[in-house]
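Long-time lurker, finally posting.

We've been working with DNA-directed RNA polymerase sigma-70 factor (Fulvitalea axinellae) and I want a structural starting point before designing mutants. I don't trust myself to interpret raw outputs, so I'm hoping someone here can both generate the structure tokens and explain anything notable. Sequence follows.
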Amino acid sequence: MKLTKDRVLALRSGDVKAFEEIVRLFYRQILFFVNEYVKNEEDAREITQDAFTKLWEKRENLDADANLRAYLFTIAKNMALMSLRGKRRIMETSGRIGLDDISELHAVAAYDPASMYSFSETRSKITEAVEAMPEQRKRVFLLSREKGMSYAEISEELNISLKTVEAHVSAALKSVRKSLNEVGITASGAIISIIITLLIGVILR
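Top reply, 14 upvotes:
Generated this for you. Predicted structure of DNA-directed RNA polymerase sigma-70 factor:
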């Protein structure tokens, strides 16, 4: 399913079905994006829901020719930062996502995989990295990135410990990051994680 101008126009006119389709299209991407800020899955889910609620409330002001995806990511980013400030966690978070990363994340909000110059090469490298993973690591990684499952859910699904899940995801991200570096994509771990999240559904569907 792709985002079309007709679907944006339908959303602007109050079409609930069009809204539900947009939610299904972007929910997982927004959720992972927000979680890179707040580092809390429950908070990330709440903020993601609020972002879509805000989109619905502002639907009549939407420009059908504008980048709805970038607009939605900007809403989510602003809500995530407001949440951090409200809970006095800015200092804690800055230790994991630095100020440079915040600026970089802002750019990623407008990132469109389909328009990326090296998209096919990037897709190929990620696919190679995923296929080269040990079977258990690959399963954990895909449940996390493709299915959007939490670490706790994966732990229960595969009957392995949380620490094992964390170790698998960490190792998987390192191997994918190494592959992306080979095509000239160098960024912080947080940014690489977001790029993987945005591309993984396109690559593996």
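Before you design anything, note these points.
DSSP finds eleven helices and no strands in the chain.
Residues 16-38 form the longest helix (23 residues).
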